[in-house]
Amino acid sequence: MYRIITLITISVSLNLSAFDHSYATYGQLLDKYVKDGNVDYESMIGSPDLQSISALFASVDSNRFNRFSLDERIAFLVNAYNFHTIELIVQHLPLKNGIRDIPKPWDTAFIPLFGGKISLNHIEHDLLRKKYNEPRIHFALVCASKSCPELYGKPFTPFNLDRQLDNAGKRFLHDSSRNRIKGKTVYLSRIFKWYAADFNSRYKGGFREYVGSVLGIPIVTYKITFLPYDWSLNRVQK
């Protein structure tokens, strides 16, 4: 009984307190376990930080979330997606190859959010993509795989979200392991193929306009080829 009362008290306290939009605790986790965009998943096994950060996200119900500003909502969802992806990997270690070894990793509703359980796909497709016209989220969301964008070593925050998303896109496009130029061909991540419609809704010339502006090239004169996608785990090599 005492344990139940204590848990209720903690839950009420979290809901009544001001939400930390700097994501300090999550930031400490990233600083400790993320190296050059890769993650030391094995060292997180048994870490109490995972439970406390999960509780922080779970403390936000739908009413509270709807009172967040636009940038607060986007930052919250991006951080929640990335954190719960990390948590999912840690819970299923060891993995032979990567996230796709886990049954239905994106469709399973395992994330305690908004008073229920939702999936990673719900965060990405039903919330972020459907409700916010912001294709740069695809450089911020990390699905624990080598061909995904590097995991940013700091949380996304509403205080400088636009700059962070701009920087994420620049890092991704200038990363020759994920995108590169050879001669008159631009070899691009399949992310641009899968989510072309998202760029079409924001940029008149679609992803080509965006890529050309970031790389500083007359993109219409280049051939576009999409690279194979490496789904192996973005783990720190020891």
One letter per element, helices H and strands E, the order comes to HHEEHHHEEHHEEHHHE
How many whole angstroms does the radius of gyration measure?
A: 19 Å
What are the segments in which pLDDT stays under 50 over at least 5 consecutive residues? Answer: 1-16
Number of strands: 7
Helical content class: 40-55%
**What's the quaternary structure here?**
single chain
In percent, how much strand structure appears in the residues?
5-15%
* Major sheet details: 3 strands, mixed
Number of helices: 10
Describe the structure.
This protein is mainly alpha-helical. It has one domain. The protein is 45% helix and 9% strand. It has helices at residues 2-16, 24-33, 48-58, 62-66, 70-91, 120-131, 161-173, 191-194, 196-200, 206-215, and strands at residues 34-35, 38-39, 111-113, 116-118, 180-182, 185-188, 223-226. α3 runs antiparallel to α5 (70-91) and α5 packs antiparallel against α6 (120-131). A three-stranded mixed beta sheet has the order 5-6-7. The chain is globular.
Task: Produce the secondary structure layout.
Blueprint: H1 2-16, H2 24-33, E1 34-35, E2 38-39, H3 48-58, H4 62-66, H5 70-91, E3 111-113, E4 116-118, H6 120-131, H7 161-173, E5 180-182, E6 185-188, H8 191-194, H9 196-200, H10 206-215, E7 223-226
Parallel strand pairs: 6-7
Antiparallel strand pairs: 1-2, 3-4, 5-6
